[in-house]
Amino acid sequence: MTYAIQAEGLEKRFGETVALDGVDLAARAGTVLGVLGPNGAGKTTAVRILATLLRPDGGRATVCGHDVVREAHQVRQLIGLTGQYASVDEMLTGTENLVMIGRLLDLPRREAKARAAELLERFELWDARDRATKTYSGGMRRRLDLAASLVGRPSVLFLDEPTTGLDPHARGGLWETVRDLVSEGVTVLLTTQYLEEADQLADDLVVIDRGKVIADGTPDELKTQVGGQVLQVRPVDARDRETVAGLVSMVAGNGMQIEGDLVTAPVSDPAVLPTIVRHLDDAGVLVAELSLRRSSLDEVFLSLTGHRAEDSHAPELVAEGSPA
Amino acid sequence: MTASTLAAPRALSRRVGPAATVRHTMTLAWRTLVQIKHNPMELLDLSVQPIMFVLLFTYVFGGQMAGGDPKVYLQYALPGIIAQNALFATLNTGVGLNTDITKGVFDRLRALPIARMSPLAGRILADTVKQAWSMMILLAVGMLIGFRVKTDVAGVLGALLILVIVAFGVSWVSVLIGVLVSAPDKVQIFGFTTIFPLSFSSSAFVRVDTMPGWMQAWAKVNPVTDLADAARGLLNGTAVAAPATKAILWAVVFAVIFAPLAVRALRRRV
Fold first, then answer.
1. A132 to chain B: which residues are within 8 Å by CB?
2. Which residues of chain A have a CB within 8 Å of the CB of B34?
3. Rounded to whole angstroms, how far apart are CA atoms B202 and A87?
4. Number of domains in chain B
5. Do B113 and A73 make contact, defined as CB atoms within 8 angstroms?
6. Do the beta carbons of residue A42 and residue A211 sit within 8 Å?
7. pTM, whole model, 2 decimals?
8. Which of B31, B101, B270 to mutate to probe the A interface, most A CBs <10 Å?
9. pLDDT tier at A260 (50, 70, 90 boundaries)?
10. Is residue B27 in some structural domain?
11. Is residue B105 a part of any domain in this protein?
12. What range defines the domain where residue B61 resides?
């Protein structure tokens, strides 16, 4: 197995704050490694270290076998970086931004222009190529950011929360692009606080919380690790909720939860389904909904950390409001 | 990119050579200058504002100064106005750098295989070009309304050179502030609150011997006095050697103190 990215025991402190407390991660060449965690978990710090922007206080990391501290210059020739902080120049046009990066990567002027045109076409920015990027929409900006990180045909691409703030359509477009790049052989490290995104894109996942890796594996392995499936029962009559809850507890054991009139419980044995049907029938409870589905990553995250990974309405509350 | 090109190990360079460093610096200087094209306000900053200053000083204050003849005052004040403008223009460097850092452009550049000094060097180079542009505009407008160069071409070039050198030295303060503050407009605020009093309490706009004694004492040690006197000497044919030497020494002092502080602060911040 060849790893395009490997990190062992990464540590980083900012004053009193411990941002990374011994993080290990590895991305297999030509795959997507998802780094999942709430705001403030240390995802961005990890990416900044791997992308040579920050020196770790402890541990080591390599990109394509090159040490990110001692061989930073070599690493920089291999990587592309897109994130909330690695941005294009708002005062320049799309073309000028990409040509500038091409020139900084030592492409001859003509080649830099050709590469810029090719990327502007690919990311559907051709019509906006001669406009200052401050006039671009959020989605266009993000596409140009991504294009800018691809000018040098990187072997390893770091995407730090690439879809945060994008509408669903733009998000879907970006996912397509990531899949295309991986099919071309690029290794992608993607940080996200969206579990759906990690589920959609990542071959392997690392879950980080408060500077530590708290779980890793494929998305399926992680889901299986946490009980695997979820039983959901919703009575027609909300007054039957307590009865249903009692039956579900009896059949499924621990972990029963009530949300409104929906009763859920993690289960590992699929045989609970006929059992619960029988019990509900005996009790004479009519159900509006009865299902057995696989755990979502959200539930995985909840069970791993004791708090949810995201709150789409108030994402900043997640980091601050997480229980100590 | 195909899988086969990936499989073959890439030939990686081990370090950035001097030729590449110069090339990267030039590219980044180009980038700063081409920004002007998309932000005409900046051109206004570089041209219209200085012109306004020349006209206001000449026609508003000129009548009361130097015996009532605006042209006589212009002949005295223009080198001082150019000096003050050069000091204000050093703020560009800090503002631009702070914008790059806060917007994330600086990180994108640092993740590229370019010389570590190129982003800053490119910006300083571009700002020097802007400096020269502003100075020439000021001189041209001054000459249009009656300023006469009493020396020669060498005098003019000497004046531009000394202004650029001092501006370069002072711009390290601007770089340091640009790295330390949280937003670009704070660089402006810092600049205005220091450069205004400094330039008005110097020989830039009035002769030092017209000031009260205590202020004369300050004005005589104020670096802006040396800079204005040096520019005046080189354009008007008055004494040059002493103020020019002192002005350049000031530039060296500023650079020696603030360049290391600025570079250290930059390494820490990013």
1. 38-39
2. 92, 96
3. 43
4. 1
5. yes
6. yes
7. 0.81
8. B31
9. confident
10. no
11. yes
12. 39-269
